[in-house]
Write a structure and sequence with these properties.
Strand content: 5-15%
CATH class of the largest domain: Alpha Beta
CATH topology of the largest domain: Rossmann fold
Oligomer: single chain
Distance between the termini: 33 Å
Number of strands: 15
Helix content: 40-55%
Number of domains: 3
Radius of gyration: 26 Å
Length: 480
């Protein structure tokens, strides 16, 4: 604690306590120096940093709110007591008191906790693993994850850093990369913190306090408001957790939506809760890219049997049950084709049971949970078309990926997916209509002229690259 307090006082340009004092007297002197300076400056960011120094952890929003009230209405002694009491409560559950501070003033801090600590590679992780390495080549970054107990940030281990910056290395290389977990607490001071992930409820209060009171600039990538608008499509607890996340979002300086629809959804949220986003938070759109391999030629399956591809996890909003229903009806009509699902496991549907039943009946159906990127590109290329009748998406990356390889898509006719469909190459449907999905699949299986027209349209699309996205996101969201 003494070392942390000395670091902060030195940052503030204040003289530390004399070295000849015993530890307890030195701590008292340092604490009073902090309190006097906070009272003199009436500075929220100094109060926030003093708490971090004393507790070795980030304060929650309620901690800061209460201490500011004491600072503004009470005596310096009462502020000292409030600081100590709330810091001790935080230490009891959050972090070991032996933590040291790593003050970051000259780098952009990026919270990559989910990406660094997990080998999942769904949409958000892909955005991070494509964007952040490009930033790291050109800018000074401090990549951080949350400490055990969620009391604050720490630096990444070498293995975690590899998951973010060098994704795709052979598994034996990734598993060999290892360094111990640091005990230091990383503290952004007067810089920018980037939130490329959706913060979970355990971290929300501390992030909300950081964004409001720490003096740092906070920028976030925002994906969708599905937990608010379509809670029936998500796990039961998602709505409550998302409300905690929205408290963080309301305090951010810049929000970058991944599509125009996503940006407008967040603008609508701000309007609904009576916040004028034009006064505080700046909303921008940085549309996700669709980088593709050099060879973008559409090459349908060589054996002449049409192949249909459906990409995405098996959860209610992906609407895969409708695709299975339409496929079975088409097979019963005698149409010959294969159907492949690629995507991680889901929840809330009986998709797995339905798929196993169809396979047991001899239907040419395949379900694959994880496919390397290079192989997925090849599956896109040889498919006659893909199907993406999702009920709600922030962007709809599988639609864009399919189109960039010249493969037509049956796509949802509203929201962010409809934005992508405007580029061409899509047959749009109401995903809530089983009959529309069925008729669209039949048309693309049987109408060669329609298929050829959509292939030609898709071939005219100029892909937006990850380099484009990383540069735009940095200039509009991260750079001051």
């Amino acid at each position: 604690m003494r070392d942390r307090m000395r670091q902060v006082l030195d940052l503030w340009g204040l003289e530390p306590a004399p070295a000849e004092l015993d530890l307890l007297d030195e701590l008292r002197t340092l604490l009073w120096a902090m309190v006097d300076d906070i009272v003199a400056h009436r500075s929220d960011d100094r109060l926030w940093l003093a708490f971090v120094a004393i507790a070795g952890a980030f304060p929650g929003f309620d901690d800061m709110d209460a201490m500011i009230d004491v600072r503004d209405t009470g005596t310096p002694a009462e502020l000292r007591d409030s600081l100590l009491a709330r810091s001790v409560q935080c230490v009891r559950w959050a972090t070991p008191s032996t933590s040291r501070l790593r003050l970051v003033t000259d780098a952009i801090v990026v919270d990559v906790h989910g990406c660094a600590t997990s080998s999942r590679h769904t949409g958000i992780q892909r955005v991070e693993r494509e964007t952040i390495p490009r930033w790291a080549h050109r800018h000074t970054l401090e990549l951080v994850a949350w400490r055990d107990g969620d009391g604050g940030y720490r630096v990444l281990t070498s293995r975690e850093e590899a998951r973010v910056l060098r994704w795709g290395l052979p598994s034996e290389v990734m598993s060999a990369s290892h360094s111990p977990v640091s005990r230091d607490i990383v503290v952004p001071v007067g810089t920018t913190l980037v939130l490329p992930e959706v913060a979970d409820a355990r971290k929300a209060s501390r992030l909300e306090a950081l964004a409001r009171f720490s003096g740092n600039r906070v920028a976030a990538i925002v994906y969708d408001v599905i937990p608010l608008t379509s809670p029936d499509l998500l796990p039961r607890h998602s709505g409550t957790d998302f409300l905690d996340y929205l408290k963080v979002i309301r305090e951010c300086d810049v929000l970058a939506g991944i599509s125009r629809s996503a940006t407008e959804e967040f603008r609508g949220y701000f309007t609904a809760v009576g916040i004028d986003a034009s006064v505080g938070t700046r909303l921008v759109t940085c549309e996700l890219p669709t980088d593709a391999p050099a060879d973008r030629a559409h090459m349908p399956q060589a054996d002449g049997i049409p192949h249909i591809l459906c990409v995405g996890s098996h959860e209610p909003r992906k609407n895969h049950g409708t695709v299975l229903f339409a496929a079975e009806k088409l097979w019963r009509e005698g149409l010959e084709f294969t159907l492949e699902f690629v995507g991680g496991g889901g929840w809330g549907t009986d998709f797995d049971h339905q798929a196993r039943a169809l396979i047991a009946r001899g239907r040419p159906l395949q379900v694959r949970k994880a496919v390397p990127d290079d192989e997925l590109w090849e599956i896109y290329r040889r498919a006659r078309f893909t199907v993406f009748p999702s009920l709600h998406e922030g962007f709809g990356l599988p639609v864009a990926e399919s189109l960039v390889l010249g493969t037509p898509v049956i796509a949802t006719d509203y929201g962010s997916i409809a934005e992508i469909a405007l580029r061409g190459g899509c047959l749009t449907v109401d995903p809530r209509s089983d009959s529309e999905v069925f008729e669209a699949m039949r048309s693309l299986l049987t109408d060669d002229d329609l298929h050829a027209r959509l292939v030609a349209e898709a071939g005219e699309i100029v892909p937006r690259t990850w380099d484009d996205y990383a540069d735009e996101l940095w200039s509009s969201c991260v750079a001051r």
